[in-house]
Amino acid sequence: MQRTAVSRLLSPSRLWPSPKPYLQTIYGIELRRHALWRSFSSSQSLNKSKKKDNAKNGVPEMPASQSTASSEDPLDLSQLEDGIAAAVSRLKDDLSKLRLGGRLSAETIEGLRVQLGKDTKDTARLGELAQVVPKGGRMVAVLVAEEGHLKPISSAILSSNLSLTPQPDSHNALQINIPVPPPTKESRDQTVHAARAAMEKAANSVRDARGVVHKRLQALVKKKVARPDDARKSQDKMEKLTEKGQKEVKDLFETAKKAMERA
């Protein structure tokens, strides 16, 4: 009995515990670190250049949940509709800035940069320092907030390429009057050219929006997620929406062109 007890006490497992639990602990730590590294390394990367190009061309970004839901439905063309609406809205805004007296509009004057002082290179938008108000006919009034900004604003208007001559108002010391010269043939041509460029930009945005949806439909058909009949229906509807959007863009340009030529 005593010999058996002593042999048990002196057994290798008592004197030198198995390294297995210790190794398992270390291996567990290593495995957890490895899994953590894999979770970061396998995360989906952001395609920044693609998002930047879409934003530049007027293709709106969709929320992740909405994009996932619509990407599985071949009949959902909301992304195309949103892209066309954004292109048309931006074109209307661009054309509205070109209609007043050929090259001139209130937004054009507000966008001029004003140097705040001789001893500084700091500048500010004219629209942040004053309010530009069309007075009817061919006269625009600039209502300056502070007297110290009168001279810098007048200098900015004079030094611009708009061929404008600001004049002080006889009744209000903080008001600058700007007579708008009648448009010449050269200024009309330049305005129509700028309007055409805005129209082409909008048309490209509509085509880009259509291209995004077309690629999505092709991917759904390739993965056999969408039935061929649904894909054909969506394709036909997509072409009609694109044609309608391009027509709206062209009509906006033609209407603006006639107004510019009569100015």
TrEMBL record:
Domain Ribosome recycling factor: from-to ranges: 91-259
Record carries keyword Transmembrane: no
Stored SUPFAM superfamilies: Ribosome recycling factor, RRF
Function: Necessary for protein synthesis in mitochondria. Functions as a ribosome recycling factor in mitochondria.
Keywords: Protein biosynthesis
High-level lineage: Eukaryota, Fungi, Dikarya, Ascomycota, Pezizomycotina
Gene3D superfamilies named in the record: 3.30.1360.40, Ribosome-recycling factor
UniProt cross-references to InterPro entries, sorted A to Z: Ribosome_recyc_fac, Ribosome_recyc_fac_dom, RRF_sf
Highest taxon listed in the record's lineage: Eukaryota
Name of the protein this chain belongs to: Ribosome recycling factor-domain-containing protein
Location of the region described as Disordered in the Swiss-Prot/TrEMBL record: 42-76, 223-246
Chain intervals with Basic and acidic residues compositional bias: 226-246
Record Pfam families: RRF
Family: Belongs to the RRF family.
